[in-house]
Write a structure and sequence with these properties.
The complex is a heterotrimer of chains A (about 200), B (about 500) and C (about 200). Chain A is mainly α and about 200 residues long. Chain A contains ten helices and no strands. Chain C folds into two domains: about 30 residues; about 160 residues, 3-Layer(aba) Sandwich (Glutaredoxin). The radius of gyration of chain C is 20 Å and the shape is elongated. Classes of the chains: A mainly alpha (about 200), B mainly alpha (about 500), C alpha+beta (about 200).
Chain lengths: ~200, ~500, ~200
């Protein structure tokens, strides 16, 4: 994707998601908020990262060797948005919703896009492993919780989200396994391991 | 360079130091945990008196420690041989060691300070139903220790995965899957790479299962309102535990593939059956674990039947290609009968013979009667004490011995004989006790069972004596080889004698 | 020092992350809205607005009229088939356990309906009778103005969502309002004995 296109998409996606009918629809269900809205916001941040000129990325580079700082920012920002009380707050309070529309692209998507290409294979592996484990753990937790964890959502929604999280984890696991077992030898030999965001960028 | 010690295996002084750390720590921990084992058998035989609480603390430490330490020692075998073919990072190998150490400290603290005695399997809900014997925190620290150890192994496997993919493109090609259905097999494709790749895949998945179930147990420990399904937890624990223990065998087998041909003088390369065996085991080791749950009648029937069938076939492919390969490799080969070679042959016997009681226990009809008896520790001690541990010892004897033959004395051979005979007696007492309905845990022993316990105690003491000699001889030689090299930089470790 | 700046940035990021999590979770004590608002209210009491309610007898009164008394509040709707029934069975037990301060005119129980459209005074009276509630110790009322309902829900932290069966899914609690008309404590609704103990403790304190 060209840089300008990425920038355009990065700008349009949050605006589209913030459009009242779509926003209301996606926030009406816990599943949609967690598995559609939040990931799309993160993708907007990633596109924003792609649209920035190389010079900007190079300027932060000394502060983000190996993508370490970015990984930490992403980890904590994701942890904050995994709290049930944050999901609730985003539904009830416009301020929290605004925070969501700003922090998920800027503190999850953007640092992920700029740090992933710098991360070593092992660090990427740990990140993906932890992401998988988190999907399975949260899915399990939502399925077994006898109480509603969000005041804004019903129990059946919560359990449906649990099922979807388990399915998402399984799908991600299968994708990674496929890539590792049969993936293009060239991509792996290039030291990067599973092709990630670097794909499509001129080497 | 001699045929026994190729130049490609030479260790830099830094690598030697790390390997020494692995080897000597593992030997020391093995000895300590064997003493715990002796204490348990002697207590069951009423020769010594320890409280039930202390008994289960010892049992927990013995189980968790042995499984972990066998894994640690065999990961050193994998590292040692795999680094010839791919570029492994010493830093990740060190990280694995350090995280293991941290995890071991946490586990020992949970057991001996916190009083945790919920067995190495930490089956829910026992760890959180403490009955005041230990605290929730102790159970949590124990599980945290496992998590830390898992992270260490994960780092090691990820590094190895990258290294393998850099050379072979992807894991499928490293496993030789492109030759499963045809094509000309590259005979120089290393057996070590096949076995290592299988372990990398399988154990990463095992650790993933562990990482999920451990964190869920931790959440439940502090937020009991999330009630876990005990059966699901048990499934995941045995998935992860079974895979981890099996991977220890598969990592240690690498030493057999590498060393036996050198002592026999015959090459041992890959073949289509070999590749098929490892491919089959890659899948089967992941789905065989239900054979640990045959007493859980609430398990879906099909899973138990699968468990029984796969438990017959799972270990078999790799075992058959290895044991058959070893036999043909040794047969009329003019074998150089040095300690490593003898230990390898012992390990093949231990692995083969251990399969018999395992298959007996893996049969549902038998399992429902035998599973809570000493038969079960009998079968896994057979594998571990007479199969995997001799593989580890063979590797260490090989590395420590060098070409100087200083580790080839009559004392070493005598210890090996004692180890074999006492080991067989020790394992035999478990199996005989199991046949006599002796319960494996959480029970007071009848007077009729005491002879088994006492004979086992004597055998255990003899095994420990032999192991002590092995440990002293190996550690001494390793340290000597290390100090002799000081200041000489990158001098190869093994100079021809 | 190739990694100096990265280490520095990582430490700052981790510290900021931990701080953010700590703030969001009230010092790692609350992960759900329900727990969070309990912690928040016990730290910072919330003034209760003086909205006008209509009770089961059709009488209108302002919440400010209850100033000077302790008021124990819950939120229900009368068609509720499950949660409210348990909640108000527990309220009925509270009425017995707190009989003395009620008799001394120091405390009132007040159930507020969040379904004022359907919960007419007749429905409210029938509902109260079902649980054996006796006015004036325990009354049930609905907000007169729809805007007041929103204010009440916000102050008391009640979230009501429509469920699949034409009813509502909602969170429940035993809400303690002090004589200065401030919400000072949110108690679990499943354990009336404990709630009574805590309330009596506050009355004496």
């Amino acid at each position: 994707m060209k840089r300008a296109h990425a920038g355009l998409a990065a700008g349009l996606l949050p605006v589209l998601l913030a459009a009242p009918p779509l926003q209301r629809m996606l926030e009406a269900s816990m599943t949609a908020q967690m598995l559609v809205q939040i990931p799309l916001l993160a993708i907007a941040g990633m596109l924003l990262g792609k649209s920035l000129p190389e010079s900007a990325a190079n300027r932060i580079q000394p502060w983000n060797r190996g993508g370490a700082t970015g990984l930490i920012v992403v980890t904590f920002a994701s942890a904050c948005w995994m709290l049930p009380l944050s999901l609730d707050a985003a539904v009830v309070s416009p301020a929290a919703d605004l925070a969501k529309f700003l922090t998920i692209p800027l503190l999850i998507g953007l640092p992920l896009a700029s740090s992933w290409p710098r991360m070593s294979f092992v660090l990427r592996g740990v990140l993906l492993f932890e992401a998988l484990a988190t999907l399975f753990r949260m899915g399990w937790l939502y399925l077994i919780s006898p109480v509603r964890l969000c005041n804004s959502y019903g129990l059946s929604d919560q359990q449906r989200l649990g099922e979807w999280l388990l399915m998402a984890g399984t799908a991600l696991l299968l994708c990674i396994a496929w890539q590792l077992l049969w993936g293009s030898p060239k991509a792996a030999a290039g030291a990067a391991g599973p092709p990630g965001l670097r794909a499509g960028r001129p080497a | 360079m001699s045929a026994l010690y190729p130049q490609t295996e030479a260790l830099s002084s830094r690598e030697r130091a790390v390997l020494n750390l692995y080897a000597i720590s593992a030997l020391a921990v093995f000895l300590l945990l064997m003493l715990f084992g002796l204490a348990m058998r002697a207590a069951q035989g009423r020769w010594i008196n320890i409280s039930p609480q202390v008994f289960y603390q010892l049992m927990t430490a013995h189980g968790a420690g042995m499984v972990g330490t066998v894994g640690l020692a065999s990961s050193a075998i994998m590292w040692f041989f795999l680094r010839k073919y791919v570029r492994l990072s010493t830093a990740m190998f060190v990280a694995n060691y350090l995280l293991f150490l941290l995890g071991a400290v946490l586990i020992l603290a949970a057991v001996f300070i916190g009083g945790f005695g919920g067995a190495w399997t930490f089956l829910y809900p026992l760890p959180v139903h403490t009955m005041g014997i230990w605290s929730i925190n102790a159970a949590a620290v124990f599980m945290l220790g496992y998590l830390v150890i898992g992270v260490g192994f994960l780092l090691f496997y990820l590094d190895a995965m990258l290294a393998v993919m850099r050379v072979y493109g992807n894991l499928g090609r490293a496993l030789g899957w492109q030759w499963l259905f045809g094509g000309t097999i590259d005979k120089s494709h290393p057996t070590t790479v096949v076995a290592s790749t299988m372990v990398i895949i399988v154990n990463t998945l095992g650790i993933l299962g562990g990482a999920v179930v451990l964190v869920m147990c931790l959440v439940n420990a502090y937020v009991p309102r999330f009630p876990l399904d005990a059966l699901l937890v048990k499934n995941l624990i045995y998935f992860f535990g079974h895979v981890f223990v099996n991977c220890s065998i598969y990592m240690a087998v690498i030493g057999v593939y590498e060393l036996l041909p050198r002592y026999s003088g015959r090459p041992w390369g890959v073949s289509r059956p070999f590749l098929w065996a490892w491919a089959a085991s890659t899948v089967m080791v992941l789905i065989v674990y239900p054979h640990h749950l045959m007493m859980d009648y609430v398990m879906p029937h099909w899973m138990l039947v699968t468990g029984q069938i796969i438990s017959y076939t799972s270990g078999l492919p790799v075992f058959l290609v290895t044991a058959y390969g070893a036999l043909t490799n040794v047969y009329r080969s003019g074998m150089r009968w040095r300690m490593p070679a003898m230990l390898i042959v012992l390990s093949m016997f231990g692995w083969a013979a251990g399969i018999v009681p395992a298959i007996v226990d893996g049969t549902i009809a038998v399992n429902v009667v035998m599973h809570n008896t000493m038969w079960v520790p009998g079968h896994f001690h057979f594998y571990l004490l007479l199969g995997v541990l001799p593989m580890v010892l063979a590797f260490l004897y090989h590395v420590a011995g060098g070409s100087s033959r200083s580790l080839e004395t009559a004392g070493d051979r005598l210890s090996l004989a004692v180890y074999l005979i006492a080991g067989l007696a020790f394992v035999g007492m478990f199996l005989a006790g199991g046949r006599a309905s002796e319960p494996r845990r959480y029970a007071v022993h009848f007077a009729e069972w005491l002879p088994y316990d006492r004979a086992a105690s004597i055998a255990a003491a003899l095994v420990i004596a032999a192991m002590l000699l092995f440990a002293i001889r190996i550690s001494g030689a390793l340290l000597k080889a290390g100090s002799g090299e000081k200041g000489s930089g990158e001098v190869p470790a093994h100079l021809p004698g | 020092m190739r990694f100096l700046r990265t280490s520095l940035a990582s430490v700052v990021a981790a510290a900021a992350g931990i701080a953010a999590l700590a703030v969001a979770t009230y010092g790692f004590t609350a992960f759900t809205t329900e727990t969070a608002r309990r912690v928040a209210v016990s730290r910072h009491p919330v003034p209760v607005p003086a909205v006008v309610l209509e009770n089961q007898a059709g009488a209108r009164f302002s919440l400010s009229a209850l100033r000077g008394k302790w008021v124990i509040v819950d939120f229900v709707y009368t068609r509720c088939q499950d949660q409210c029934a348990v909640l108000d069975a527990n309220f009925a037990r509270l009425e017995t356990m707190l009989a003395r301060p009620i008799a001394a005119n120091r405390l009132r129980l007040l159930s507020i309906s969040f379904d004022p459209g359907r919960d007419t005074p007749t429905a409210l009276a029938a509902y109260l009778a079902r649980f054996g509630g006796r006015s004036p110790g325990w009354q049930i009322a609905r907000p007169v103005d729809a805007a007041d309902l929103v204010r009440l829900e916000r102050v008391f932290g009640i979230t009501v969502i429509a469920d699949d069966d034409g009813g509502y899914t909602h969170n429940s609690a035993i809400l303690v309002v002090d004589p200065r008309a401030r919400l000072i404590e949110i108690l679990g609704w499943r354990d009336p004995e404990r709630a009574a103990r805590e309330i009596l403790g506050k009355l004496e304190g």
